[in-house]
Amino acid sequence: MTYKNTHLVKGSNGFRLLHHTMESRTHLAAEKKRCNSHNCAQAVVCTYCDLVGLPEQTALDIAGAYGVGMGNMEGTCGALVGTGMIVGLLSKDSTLARSRMKQIMTKFQERNGATRCKLLKGVGTGQPLRDCPDCVADASEFLEEILENNP
């Protein structure tokens, strides 16, 4: 998959990307989690922070509280939280951002069977649905689809 990258322009629906093609970053985001240098939210936010003009250290700090999902496994997967941060910063419109996140959450749920960290990791069931690097890759893939389809 490729998507548009590098230059943002202000449009009626917030910022949008100019038509510069770049390879998918899903593998980069997943590797950041796989090697344990980032939590799930940080892996996503830091992989795409340049698209929103966010310094990487700020991205690390903003997403730092969302390791093991929102609410320490009780809530939404951290990769989805990080994706929401990027979607919100790119959209610049809360209604549009919520609509885009609903699309991402629906696709993630359909693929993985859950959006809550606890359920994805199999806490209480002993049956993990998806490991963290794959959740990061999935959330990144769905983010890139939004970027690709909303130039």
Q: What share of residues are in beta strands? A: 5-15%
Whole-Å distance between the termini?
Answer: 15 Å
Helix content: 40-55%
Average pLDDT, to the nearest integer?
Answer: 86
Rg estimate, integer Å: 15 Å
Structural category? mainly alpha
How many DSSP E strands? 4
User: Quaternary status of these chains?
Assistant: single chain
The helix/strand order is EEEEHHHHHHH
Query: Which segments are poorly predicted (pLDDT under 50) over 5 or more consecutive residues?
Result: 1-21
Biggest sheet descriptor: 2 strands, antiparallel
Q: What is the domain tally?
A: 1
Spatial strand sequence of the major β-sheet: 1-4
Inertia-based shape: globular
* Count of alpha/pi helices: 7
Tell me about this structure.
- With 151 residues, the protein is mostly helical.
- It has one domain (2-149).
- It has 7 helices and 4 strands.
- A two-stranded antiparallel ribbon has the order 1-4. It has a two-stranded antiparallel ribbon with strand order 2-3.
- A hairpin with a 2-residue loop joins strand 2 (8-11) and strand 3.
- It is globular, with a radius of gyration of 15 Å.
- The two termini are 15 Å apart.
- Residues 1-21 have low confidence and may be disordered.
Quick overview of this protein structure:
This protein is mainly alpha-helical and 151 residues long.
